[in-house]
Amino acid sequence: MRRSWERRQVTGTAVELEAVDGSNDVLSFVAPSAISSWTFDVMDFARQAVSRGLAQNNRYLTSVQAGFEPWQNGTGLAVTSFSSTVNKGSSGDPGGPGGSAACKVAYTTNVWQGGFTADVTVTNTSSTPVSGWKLAFTLPTGQQITSDWNANVSPSSGAVTASNVGYNEQITAGGQASFGFQGTYGGTFAKPSGFSLNGTACTTA
């Protein structure tokens, strides 16, 4: 069993994300200190699951289960009162999975026989900043990454994820983050067919 901790912003609130890989994969969002209320977008949780390969962006979200373990005055599960309100949004056509894109990706390459470099620019086209980002895409068959810069890209082939480094964690509304990598290829060179930022499909420039 593997356990990891990350700090994330979920709908403006700092939480600690615990990921446990075992017979069942579990993602837990834990407030680092006591809170009396919290308003959040359930899609923040769905995007975290997609970015870790635990869900797929081209599927519909049909149901949600939520629970709580409030601790008060020491060990135990107890509260004096509890209430919740769910906003289902507007009625009508739900649209396609993932909704409208809130990001745009420019993927520029320099190719030579057997090798290439890729410079990637991610633009946040939404009205809110992105704090902590992961760009997922699939390298065509035969391509392998040998080095990267301004992001941590792994694994080296197939379905890969580029994650921010410490100094470029946040992409402001309308802002950009850029990174790149060098790699090798066999056969005919091709570019990835699509990209998703924190689980949301992006358009391409």
From TrEMBL:
GO MF: cellulase activity; polysaccharide binding
All copies of domain CBM2, residue ranges: 96-205
Pfam family, one: CBM_2
Record GO biological process: polysaccharide catabolic process
Gene3D superfamilies in alphabetical order: 2.60.120.180, 2.60.40.290
Keywords: Carbohydrate metabolism, Glycosidase, Hydrolase, Polysaccharide degradation, Signal
Protein name: Cellulose binding domain-containing protein
Taxonomic placement: Bacteria, Bacillati, Actinomycetota, Actinomycetes, Kitasatosporales
